Amino acid sequence: MKNWSLWTGLVLLGFMLFISFVGPHLPFIDDTAPEHRMRFYEGGEIGRAPFPPSKEDPLGTDREARDILSMIVIGAKDTLKIIVLITFIRYIIAIPMAFLASTKKGIAYMVSNGWYSLFGSIPTIIAAILLLEIVPVEGLENAVYWKVMIIALIEVGRVSYILSHEIYEVSQKEFVQASVTVGSTPFQLSVMHYLPSVSQSVVVNFFNDLARVTLLVGQLALFQYFIEHAIDYIPGGGTFHEESGYNSVTGVFDWPGLLSAARYEVMKAIWIPLFPALALTLLLLTFQLLSEGFRKLFERQTSSEKNQTVRRLVERVGEAFVTSKMAGAVTLVMFVVMVGTVIVTGVGNKTTEVAAPVEEEVEEEVEEVVNEAKHFDEDKYVFENGKLVATTVATTAKGGFYDKLEHLELHMEKKSDNDYETDTFVLKCRTIGAGRCEKPVIKFKKPITNVEEAYQLLVDHLPIDAVKDVEFQDKERYVYALESSLLKESYLEVDIKSIFVMFYITPEKTIEKVEFEGVGP
Description:
- By secondary structure, the protein is of the alpha+beta class.
- It has helices spanning about 5-20, 70-100, 105-120, 125-135, 145-155, 155-170, 175-180, 185-220, 255-260, 270-300, 305-325, 325-345, 360-375, 405-410, 450-460, 485-490; strands at about 40, 45-50, 230-235, 245-250, 380-385, 385-390, 415, 420, 425-435, 435-450, 465-475, 475-485, 500-505, 510-520.
- The relative contact order is 0.09.
């Protein structure tokens, strides 16, 4: 009888690895930010993000018009990395503890039992939330990886407890007692008898724990715990900080983060949280199928003569290894490599590895960029790290679209890192990049009765030479397209040419909110 669980799990795992490592390089995957959140259709209709699933966007977009399919594919690698890292750390700690606790006495046994009793008495999700609230990791460098450690430690006691009981049962077998009688050391017993006996259980439980961790990080995302991030687009520095594209402020771009950011969209745009949730469900199913598949495989092999022969061979190899002079050295090297891998993975702040170009290519690129720089106004741009950066502080009189934050603070009262206030409205910077207010939203303190009155209240917060080029209306908005030579000259090289000013009309025919949207050339 074929083991369909194992084969299906292996196929799904292969698919997950494919989209993790090859997927981001596929031609239909786009990691660049959309030019704007509005689309114009034939017949004069206007569409505004989020856009539902369609031929153009198979899984739809979010409210910033970012393609959900692309974000899921880009986030697959970090999702696998986080889940595997949590489980790997858990087993690295639990396996040695299980061997020490298998004697059912001593400090290790008390710690293992106490650890299991403490966290086994409450649901894992509650324990995780409590620890993430109590332990102050937010202010630490690489806070995400400290959270990974906390999540991993919660169920170390459970894994250690299970494995220690299995090792204890093996220790009571006659062949193990015979080895003890002839003077075998605990290390020799572990390699020759315990590891071959419990290795199959470790494999089954490891994949089962991968599924448990997948479910846990998904649950935490719904409560906005563990990995919380806002996804922005920074010209010249995006998803991976060194490349252009999407940027996660935590340095990790994963599916739970997408689910966490989208949980408020359930009632309005169900596809935004739905597809990250389905991706996590498929990953959980993959690990569960592998766990069940390996369990069936090992159960079938346990009674077979072939398996007994392999097991005896493993025991003989283990016996030869532990009696050799190289045993201690090899074990030490393996331990150092494993610990080093965990440390390097945790310290790294990037979500992917970017191959550095050879020195000659770097020199050619810098030379090419510098040559192009000669055509630009030195008063408007400077080169920083080989990239063109706008130096204009502001194009408005009192702070608004794409102005430096210090210019906003000079003319408005600062309420928070993103919020500024005047007598008539509150200005919120939806995103902040390079110290600038990107995509401002203005909410009037009192409803405004018409568009022209609202526009006059905003004049000082728009480019000082802005003129209305086009205006149009749909059911909920009235839109001004503004042209500005000052804006164009100051930010053309960062793809900003003009502004859409969108006035939102309430059912009472008043205006309470206005959004600014930059438009590229």
